[in-house]
Each structure stands twice: as structure tokens, then as C-alpha cells.
């Protein structure tokens, strides 16, 4: 026990073993919905639910153990909400990319992420992107996943006259989604730990009482293999189809989500040293390794979960918190039949998507709306993302118009040369390569 205390520096960080265990359980409760929602979303892209379920758990455990042991941070890394919706609905269903090729793109993004993490010059990629566009990408992705959640709940449906319209509450599934959303929001207003997960469980019970949910024949099963997705990535297809903008998009979202959330959580835990993030390279590498492993195993890119903040609020200060969460996730691997049952009814998972969108759109506060040259390109990114169903196209539009407005005002020097290269690639992607 003393070795554990010394390894994780429990005394130095003013915490105890019992506090870390409680914090790990708290984090698990708040992020458990991910292992249900993620395979549910990716199954919409034609991927095997059980294979993605196993890949989600394994990539989460792998990347989280790296940041816990190498960085000693109470942080969990798992497939991100928003980017998984882009993978399934934007890349596969929207652009017609096969999920195998999309996984190849994820793998390449992971390799690039590793280079960015290891190389000081590689960080130029992050520094050259204007802050306004970074915040817009996160906020726009939040709107996108919220839109997907509203569609899954059938609160937003297709209309022959106006493209979309409000759904009917006479639909049992829509009514269930509304009830689930209200229940979850009430739980959140009372600051209940794991409100999203608990809300899904309550929605499941109500759905069962309404006759919408059929309970599985068995609740427990030995963890299934990943044969349906393991090493099914198609890297060659990425180059043949010229999907560099897709790879770049996966990279951008992964890097921005990770760096922003890491700093926020480190500050919350009081682990920042004179404004600097200690062992930041190991933290970034953990995320990069998770993205790469996800491409191999069969899941969308991972990111640092903001839900880790619940464990930090409960007193978690070391990697032991994250390890406890990993142990609990390991037990979930035996509940695949239950997870598949919950994910089979979109009305159960839709409220979680809507609420996650709310958390992501809060980055709008950081955009300087009084600066037209900065804010209008950001506005285009945010608006076009849910409307085009394409994160990569929206990012390209933002980059292009950012340069156009800066050039029109004679502010060429404010735009980094690398940004011109990115914009040119997006012009080619949008103008010639996109169907």
C-alpha cells in the first residue's frame, strides 16, 4: 500500500486511497454512457455493435492507463461525442466514405497526432489555427451532435416544404425522449453525479413500461471479440480517394478537444505549475495512442473527457482515480447485451447527445464577436456544420473566409503561411474532390 501511495504521490497531492477510489467511481458514473452511446452511433455506419463496444472499452482503458501511469493525472480518455457523430453521419452516411476507409483516416490522424505531440515544430499546427476558429470548431461540433440527438429523438423530422420541421409528441419514441431529457436535466440541476447515465436508465425503465423496449434474454455475456472491426481499416483507400481533409479534420478535432480539456481539468485539480502543464507530452501521447489504437481496433477518435471533472470535484488528484475507473469499465465488458438493448432505442440515448452539445457550444463565450474578421468565419463554421452534415467542409469554409477577410483588410501578415496551405487544400477538397 505504501508503494501505491509513493507511486501516485498521494501525500504530496493531499489525497488518500479512499478518496481516489470514490473519485474513480464518480468519474465512471458520469462517463459510463459513452460505452453505450458510442457503439450505438457507429453501428449506424454499418459497424458491428459488439465489436465497437469492445473496442470502445479497450481503447478507453489503454489510453487512460497511459495518462494515469505516465502522467499521474485523474483523467479518463475515451471516444469523443461529436466526432463519433461526424464519423458515422458526416463521413460515412453523408460523404459516402466506407467505415473501413474512415478508420484508416482515423489511424493516420493518430500517427500525425503522435508527431505533433513529440515534435516541438509539430505544435506549429496548433499554434497557426486562429483561436476564434478553434472555439468555433468545438461549438459547431456541439451543434452538430445536438442536431443528431434531436433527429434521433424525432423532435426534428424531414419536411418536403421546409427541409426540417418539429416532430410529433404523439409518437411514443418522441414522447419518451422528451421525458428522458426532462428527467436528465432535473438530475443535472440538482448536481446529481452521473445524471446522463442515470437518466438513460430511468428512460429505459419508462420505455419498457411503454412497451418500446424489449429486455434481453440474458443480461451478462462473456466479452465478444473485435473480429468485425479489428484491423479492418483501409489506409490505401484514404490516399486513393484523396481524403486528406477528412484526416486533417479528425486530427484538428482530436488535438483541440484534447488540449483545451486537459488544461481545464489540470487547473480544476490544482496541478498546473506556474501556468504550465507538467508532463503535457505524456498526456498528449496518451490521447494520440488512443486515436491510433481506435483506428486499429475499430472506433472513432478518443479525446480527454470533460466528465473527468466530476471525479476531480470528488477529490481525485492522481492517476489512481483513472485506474479505478478503468477497473469498473472492465466489468462493463460483460454487459454487452444490456448496452445493445439500451442503444437499440435511439430515444434513450438522444437526450445525452443533446446535452453534450450544450456543453460543447459554451466555447462561443471565448470568441470576440466585436472583431468582424475573427467572428464571421467562426460564425460560418458554427452554422454550416449541422446544416451541411460535414465537419470537414465547415472547417474549410471557415479557413477560406478567414483568409479572404484578412486579405480584404490588408492584414496579410496576421495569417500564418501554413494557414494558406490548409485553405488551399480545403478549396481543392470542396471545389473539386467533393461530390
User: What do the pLDDT scores average to?
Assistant: 86
The helix-and-strand class reads mainly alpha
Order of helices and strands: HHHHEHHHHEEHHHHHEHHHHHHH
Helix amount: 55-70%
> What is the 3D shape?
globular
Strand arrangement, major sheet: 1-4
Rg, rounded, reads: 21 Å
Proportion of beta-strand residues: under 5%
Q: How far is it from the N-terminal to the C-terminal residue, by CA?
A: 60 Å
Count helical runs.
Answer: 20
Counting DSSP E segments of at least 2 residues, the number of strands comes to 4
Oligomer: single chain
Biggest sheet features? 2 strands, antiparallel
- Unreliable residue runs: none
What does this structure look like?
The chain starts with a helix and ends with a helix. It has helices at residues 2-8, 17-31, 34-43, 49-70, 83-94, 99-118, 124-128, 131-152, 172-189, 195-209, 235-240, 244-268, 280-297, 308-313, 319-332, 336-343, 346-361, 372-388, 391-408, 417-433; strands spanning 77-79, 156-159, 163-166, 302-304. The strands form two sheets. Strands 1-4 form a two-stranded antiparallel ribbon. The protein has a two-stranded antiparallel sheet with strand order 2-3. The longest helix has 25 residues, at 244-268. The protein is 67% helix and 3% strand. Strand 2 and strand 3 (163-166) form a beta hairpin. The chain is mainly alpha-helical.
Summarize the structure.
The chain is mainly alpha-helical and about 425 residues long. The chain has 20 helices and four strands. The chain has a two-stranded antiparallel ribbon with strand order 1-4. Strands 2-3 form a two-stranded antiparallel ribbon.
Amino acid at each position: 500500500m505504501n508503494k501505491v501511495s509513493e507511486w501516485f504521490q498521494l501525500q504530496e497531492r493531499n489525497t488518500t486511497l479512499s478518496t481516489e477510489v470514490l473519485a474513480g467511481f464518480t468519474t465512471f458514473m458520469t462517463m459510463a454512457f459513452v460505452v453505450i452511446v458510442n457503439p450505438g452511433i457507429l453501428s449506424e455506419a454499418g459497424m458491428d455493435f459488439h465489436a465497437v463496444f469492445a473496442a470502445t472499452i479497450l481503447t478507453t482503458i489503454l489510453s487512460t492507463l497511459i495518462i494515469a501511469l505516465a502522467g499521474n493525472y485523474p483523467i479518463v480518455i475515451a471516444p469523443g461525442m461529436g466526432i463519433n457523430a461526424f464519423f458515422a453521419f458526416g463521413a460515412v452516411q453523408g460523404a459516402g466514405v466506407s467505415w473501413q476507409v474512415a478508420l484508416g483516416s482515423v489511424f493516420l490522424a493518430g500517427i500525425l497526432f503522435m508527431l505533433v505531440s513529440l515534435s516541438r515544430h509539430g505544435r506549429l499546427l496548433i499554434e497557426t489555427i486562429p483561436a476564434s476558429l478553434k472555439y468555433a470548431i468545438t461549438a459547431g461540433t456541439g451543434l452538430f451532435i445536438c442536431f443528431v440527438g434531436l433527429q434521433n429523438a424525432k423532435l426534428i423530422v424531414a419536411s418536403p416544404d421546409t427541409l426540417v420541421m418539429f416532430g410529433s409528441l404523439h409518437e411514443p419514441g418522441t414522447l419518451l425522449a422528451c421525458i428522458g431529457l426532462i428527467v436528465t436535466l432535473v438530475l443535472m440541476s440538482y448536481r446529481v453525479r452521473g445524471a446522463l447515465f442515470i437518466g438513460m436508465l430511468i428512460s429505459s425503465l419508462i420505455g419498457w413500461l411503454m412497451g418500446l423496449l424489449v429486455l434481453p434474454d440474458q443480461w451478462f455475456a462473456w466479452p465478444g471479440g473485435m473480429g468485425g472491426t479489428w484491423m479492418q481499416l483501409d489506409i490505401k483507400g484514404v490516399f486513393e480517394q484523396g481524403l486528406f481533409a477528412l484526416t486533417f479534420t479528425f486530427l484538428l478535432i482530436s488535438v483541440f478537444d484534447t488540449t483545451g480539456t486537459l488544461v481545464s481539468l489540470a487547473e480544476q485539480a490544482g496541478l498546473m505549475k506556474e501556468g504550465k502543464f507538467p508532463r503535457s507530452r505524456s498526456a498528449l501521447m496518451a490521447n494520440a495512442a488512443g486515436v491510433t489504437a481506435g483506428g486499429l481496433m475499430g472506433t472513432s477518435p478518443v479525446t480527454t473527457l470533460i466528465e473527468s471533472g466530476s471525479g476531480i470535484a470528488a477529490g481525485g488528484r492522481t492517476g489512481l482515480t483513472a485506474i479505478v475507473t478503468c477497473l469498473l469499465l472492465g466489468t462493463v465488458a460483460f454487459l454487452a447485451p444490456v448496452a445493445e438493448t439500451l442503444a437499440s432505442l435511439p430515444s434513450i440515448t438522444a437526450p445525452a447527445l443533446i446535452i453534450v452539445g450544450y456543453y460543447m457550444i459554451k466555447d462561443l463565450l471565448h470568441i470576440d464577436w466585436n472583431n468582424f474578421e475573427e467572428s464571421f468565419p467562426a460564425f460560418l463554421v458554427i452554422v454550416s456544420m449541422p446544416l451541411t452534415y460535414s465537419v470537414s467542409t465547415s472547417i474549410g469554409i471557415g479557413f477560406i473566409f478567414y483568409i479572404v477577410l484578412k486579405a480584404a483588410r490588408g492584414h496579410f501578415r496576421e495569417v500564418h503561411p501554413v494557414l494558406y496551405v490548409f485553405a488551399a487544400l480545403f478549396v481543392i477538397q470542396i471545389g473539386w474532390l467533393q461530390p
